Amino acid sequence: MPSTVIVGTQWGDEGKGKVTDLITKDYDYVVRFQGGNNAGHTVIVGERKLALHLMPSGIMDENAVPVIGNGVVIDPGILVEEMQMLEDEGISCKNLKISCDAHVIMPYHKDFDGADEKRLGENKIGTTNRGIGPCYQDKAARKGIRIQDLLDEKIFRLKLETALSQKNPVLEKIYGLAPYTVDRICEEYLPYARILKPYMTETAQLLGEALRNNKNILFEGAQGTLLDIDHGTYPYVTSSSCCAGGAATGTGVGPTAINKVIGIQKAYVTRVGGGPFPTEQRYVENGGAGEEAETGEALCKAGHEFGVTTGRKRRCGWFDAVIARYAAEVNGLTDIALTKLDVLSAFDTIKVCIAYECQGKTYDYFPMQQSVLFHAKPVYVELPGWKGLDLSECRSFEELPQNAQDYVTYLEALSGVPVTIIGVGPDRDQTIVRGWKSK
Ligand code: GDP
Ligand code: IMO
Ligand code: MG
Questions:
Q1: Are residues 371 and 388 in the same domain?
Q2: Dist. CA 155 → ligand 2 center (Å)
Q3: Which residue of 120, 124, 273, 382 has the smallest Cβ count within 10 Å?
Q4: Mean pLDDT, the chain, as a whole number?
Q5: Could you tell me if the CB of 40 is within 6 A of ligand 2?
Q6: Is the residue at 9 inside a domain?
Q7: What is the domain range of residue 154?
Q8: The ligand 1 atom nearest the CA atom of 57
Q9: What element of type H or E holds 420?
Q10: End of a domain among 195, 226, 247?
Q11: Does residue 403 sit in the same domain as residue 358?
Q12: Beta carbon of 132 within 6 Å of any ligand 2 atom
């Protein structure tokens, strides 16, 4: 019963969608376990490009059952829309299984997300504004509404009434926003419930059964290690457990069932939204200048670093080995898929951060106090590049230019985890498989 967790090792957008799509063929189930439609996962096969938010990225593989686990928060309108988009593309969603325990993003969650960001002003998190935080907040406060509650109108109305008796006064009196009525929300959400009902199931039981029958399960993480609610750069994080451990709680599969954890690692680093980012090469508009701003722009341009969900320009920076080691540890990585190596063909030399310096102290491990991250000065090693050489046709490690090979083995040594997949372009085929085995 080989099962594998895919996790982001940085601040998201590492290329999880591409790798999930690539390896799903070896699995019988492909499962999302946390997050919601804050995720934007890109899958490119030939002319076809999909941007997925809630559906597991293995959806193109007809033989793998797509599952949305209990740890995911679902905006039902967005899910219905995404299913329609896939059906229009000729991709069937008929096998989709949705956990009846997944929590539902309500309209007021989206209002609170936006209003709270406004309240925070300069200190805002820079959320995707999809209602993720407020929905997980209600879940933790035991006030949430689960997808199973939508199946019985009476129960749904009762739960809504209770929720609105608390939400409406806050919306109106604290944020100056319009209140909701039970009828208005029912009118919008009950038709979604009718569409989604056939897909709802007890997914923990389903996956348990699958494991007993020796089926293979692939867990697809969203966001990344440093956006994890516990292990990330709190409070500049999302509200779920993005690390490998989240795959167990977010699906009901015991941790002993997980054999492999593959960390998706960009050959440089990006981040969307606020929060510390030691190796950031700031754009002029973010206070950067000269070489720093040029590097930031060059990474953004070569890597097409714009958000899939919000279209925001991603902050870009050099590879950070302190983070890489931390991600290896907190996720128990067995493998690394190094993505976007081709993007670094834009540079003469490439920098790698091996430690931080802060107030006379050197840190080669993730600092205990976040204030260090804010003020950390990266200690860089500069490596020779392979400027202008096109990597996109390379299909074996040996075909890569020597400096690119050296870059990969250097990063491997820094994190202590083997790089068993290398991305040399966005297409599924633009990949070097270097020893990756699902079993
Ligand atoms: P995710 O959120 O981790 O699934 O990543 P995103 O889809 O948000 O962002 C990754 C972007 O990089 C997408 O546009 C992918 O098509 C692209 N991508 C993934 N792997 C590679 C790669 O190896 N090389 C290049 N050039 N692009 C890649
Ligand atoms: P994928 O799965 C990159 C970031 C937001 C913000 C913070 C909190 O595509 O890698 P939220 O809306 O979750 O409350 O926002 O987390 N964020 C992401 N950044 N990729 C993502 O997903 C992200 N999902 C959330 O920008 O900083
Ligand atoms: Mg993304």
A1: yes
A2: 32
A3: 382
A4: 96
A5: yes
A6: yes
A7: 103-195
A8: 4
A9: strand 419-423
A10: 195
A11: yes
A12: yes
Widest CA span in the chain: 66
- Give pLDDT tens digits for 339-357: 999 999 999 999 999 999 9
User: What would the pLDDT profile of 195-205 be if each residue is shown by its tens digit?
Assistant: 999 999 999 99
The shares of helix, strand and coil residues in the chain, as percent rounded to the nearest 5, are: 40, 20, 40
C-alpha 176 – ligand 3 centre gap (Å): 33
Q: Given the CA of residue 38, which atom of ligand 2 is nearest to it? A: 24
Q: Is 18 a pocket residue for ligand 1 (Cβ < 6 Å)?
A: yes
Q: Which helix (H) or strand (E) holds 55?
A: none
Give the closest ligand to the alpha carbon of residue 263.
1
pLDDT digits (tens, 9 = 90+) for 150-174: 999 999 999 999 999 999 999 999 9
44 lines ligand 1 (CB under 6 A): yes
Which residues are 353's β-sheet partners? 320, 380
Q: Which of 240, 262, 284 is the last residue of a domain?
A: 262
For 229-252, the DSSP string reads: TTTSSTTSS-SS--STTHHHHTTT
User: Residues 300, 419: one domain?
Assistant: yes
Domain count, the chain: 3
- Whose CA is closest to 227, among 275, 265, 268? 275
What is the CA angle 30-59-312, rounded to 5? 100
The reported pLDDT for the residue numbered 308 is: 82
The ligand whose atoms approach the alpha carbon of 306 most closely is: 1
- pLDDT for residue 1 is more than 80: no
Residue keyed to tokens 């604290």: 174
pLDDT in tens, 35-56: 999 999 999 999 999 999 999 9
Pocket test for ligand 2, best of 37, 110, 128 (most atoms within 8 A of CB): 128
Distance CA 226, CA 61 (A): 30
pLDDT tens digits along 279-291? 999 999 999 999 9
Residue 176: CATH number of its domain:
1.10.300.10
